[in-house]
């Protein structure tokens, strides 16, 4: 059991077994008497790591034939530009759904490669819900959305229905629940939530993308460069990929994404039930769009803040201060957070009533 | 003393103390009862790490006033594009010295942002020397060169003299010797030789660069983005920056770059002396351009190869097989390689004579 109940919004909690194995590999990797940090990325030992990580992504997410997986650098923030560069085509125009800070930043980068139409936005209500019932033009090269909004605590419960190629920034909920990959042309995700430590970025791409008319793309921003070289065009972020591989192995060992999804739903039910039951708390996000990953909530009585902060700190809870754009509290419950840690938070919320 | 004599060309050997401290932080960072891998990059504990790493770079390299230091991602391979994007200006033209594979790749990316003039090249002699005595046009926005050529084993012994802004890919010899930073407008370097593990890239930039007429640069490729946010615009490669900080602390503890330079010169003298003395071996690079970091050499009698390979493997030497573009052998002697490991290789070379 975790000594600290780690609700960090990311980089976030990882399984203890994974952390221990990672530390062991830093000291001596694969029995080579060398650290993982000081071996060639082209050594057969590390090539096997990348192959296994790639295979595990495909297996755990049931990636269909005709799709490729690779690891790159730069986080989703560089992914905003990379996705636009790789997806823009003959229309020279893209469509974006704006559901928060990260969508906003993606839209900004898309302007570097073409016209952008924001087809829906919840900006006017401080992104407290997922827009619904909007039209998506057909004269665009792709539609982009952010599946889970870490800051505001909202999450798409359904994949947007569209006839144009679909692109998704899945940084904060990939590997947390089943997803039909075949609906997407491109998925990208920074590692540092449910995949591994910061420094690697996952790309899942439909191979058809590379066959379209595309603009001239700088080598390192072209996903095809990295797919063709199996994530080894240049020196990859060795440690981050290795620990991601360990973490995906761990996910497989507990029953894969489906088993993890049940745990995540249990955690979310537990915490949202307390938020709805306890008159001292109120959820921030629209009920139907509530994220299972990031739970945003506020106190109904601000005078209780000092007491609440004292209680959760005493319970060894870490990282639940809300983002400055929302205020209040944010409990990030990524895959590795145990149900028992959520129970501790719920107990603290109950204790505040009688305090 | 190293159990394995690790001559890996990169990622490469790091000091044992640094590796041990890195493993400790993976288990429990800063006494927080949390792994370095699962804490927020915006926690005060990690912000201190980035500040110390930045400070150590400035201190160890004697970075003058008017320069900024930041850490980014993507390696030098993305640096090829980033440097071009940030440096191209009114001339819409740049000058490059082509001294090998990495220069070649830098030239390719520079074509994305403007015209490129290759002012000198040693390509016709398989990059076995550093070109000299060439003219540098003045109607270019910058001159770019690669200070050390890992594959071919050549190194600039002097900084090219020019009136135009100077840009250098210093990936494989930064922190190995004293450098007059004031001669440069921009220096970039992948971490995985003398700075730390793969995943972080160092940029040292003259602040004047940001005041010039520049083209519109995507957010993540604009060095100013990362300088302004002190390497924290987005989630940085936490682990790689942390271990780099530990390694720079270590470098300071042994006397800094000047002390390290003496050790590197001692190692280079020892190995090159044996190459020149022993009739069974021949150096690949022109004598006056020999790299202190990567020593390329071949056997004069190919029939001795099996025996030599047997001898160095038996001596627990790792990573001296030459790159396919050069053949023979390459002994990479980055900062952390001890003199004693070089002595073991020299002893093996001597043993071959009497074998």
Q: What is the approximate shape of chain A? A: globular
Mean of the pLDDT scores of chain A? Answer: 97
Q: What is the CATH homology-level superfamily of the largest domain in chain A? A: Type I PLP-dependent aspartate aminotransferase-like (Major domain)
* Largest interface chains and counts: A-B, 61 and 61 residues
Radius of gyration of chain A: 21 Å
Number of individual domains of chain A: 2
**Using DSSP, what is the number of strands of chain A?**
14
**What fraction, in percent, of the residue positions of chain A are helical?**
25-40%
How would you sum up this structure, described in words?
- 2 copies of one chain form a homodimer.
- The first copy, chain A, is of the alpha/beta class and 355 residues long.
- Chain A folds into 2 domains: 16-253, Type I PLP-dependent aspartate aminotransferase-like (Major domain) (Aspartate Aminotransferase, domain 2); 257-354, Alpha-Beta Complex (Aspartate Aminotransferase, domain 1).
- Helix content of chain A is 34%, strand content 17%.
- Chain A has helices spanning 16-27, 44-60, 75-87, 101-110, 223-228, 238-253, 256-277, 305-314, 339-354, and strands at residues 5-6, 67-72, 93-98, 115-121, 143-146, 148-149, 154-155, 166-169, 186-190, 201-206, 281-283, 294-299, 317-318, 329-332.
- In chain A, strands 2-10-9-8-5-3-4 form a 7-stranded mixed β-sheet, sandwiched between helices. The first copy, chain A, has a 3-stranded antiparallel β-sheet with strand order 11-12-14, with helices on one face.
- Chain A starts with a strand and ends with a helix.
- At the A-B interface, helix 1, helix 3, helix 4 and helix 6 of A face helix 1, helix 3, helix 4 and helix 6 of B.
């Amino acid at each position: 059991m975790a000594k600290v109940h780690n609700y960090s919004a990311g980089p976030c909690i990882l399984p203890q077994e994974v952390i221990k194995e990672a530390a062991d590999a830093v000291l001596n990797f694969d029995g080579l008497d060398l650290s993982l940090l000081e071996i060639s990325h082209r050594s057969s030992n590390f090539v096997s790591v990348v192959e296994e990580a790639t295979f595990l992504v495909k297996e755990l997410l049931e990636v269909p034939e005709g799709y490729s997986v690779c690891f790159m650098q730069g986080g989703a923030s560089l992914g905003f530009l990379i996705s636009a560069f790789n997806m823009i085509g003959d229309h020279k125009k893209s469509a974006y759904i704006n559901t928060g800070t990260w969508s906003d930043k993606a839209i900004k980068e898309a302007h570097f490669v073409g016209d952008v139409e924001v087809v829906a936005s919840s900006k006017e209500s401080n992104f407290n819900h997922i827009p619904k019932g909007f039209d998506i033009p057909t004269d665009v090269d792709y539609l982009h959305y952010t599946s889970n909004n870490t800051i505001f605590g909202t999450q798409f419960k359904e994949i947007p229905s569209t006839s144009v190629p679909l692109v998704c920034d899945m940084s904060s909920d990939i590997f947390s629940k089943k997803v039909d990959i075949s609906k997407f042309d491109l998925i990208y995700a920074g590692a540092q939530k449910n995949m591994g430590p910061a420094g690697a970025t996952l790309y899942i791409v439909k191979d058809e993308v590379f066959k379209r008319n595309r603009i001239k793309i700088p080598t390192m921003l072209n996903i095809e460069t990295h797919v063709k070289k199996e994530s080894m065009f240049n020196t990859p972020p060795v440690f981050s990929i290795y620990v991601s591989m360990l973490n995906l192995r761990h996910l497989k060992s507990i029953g894969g994404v489906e088993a993890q999804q049940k745990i995540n739903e249990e955690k979310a039910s537990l915490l949202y039930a307390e938020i709805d039951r306890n008159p001292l708390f109120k959820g921030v996000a629209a009920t139907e769009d509530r994220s299972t990953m990031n739970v945003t909530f506020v106190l109904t009585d601000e005078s209780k803040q000092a007491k609440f902060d004292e209680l959760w700190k005493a319970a060894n809870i870490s990282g639940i201060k809300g983002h400055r754009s929302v205020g209040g509290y944010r409990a990030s419950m990524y895959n590795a957070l145990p149900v028992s840690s959520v129970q501790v938070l719920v107990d603290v919320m109950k204790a505040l009533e009688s305090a």
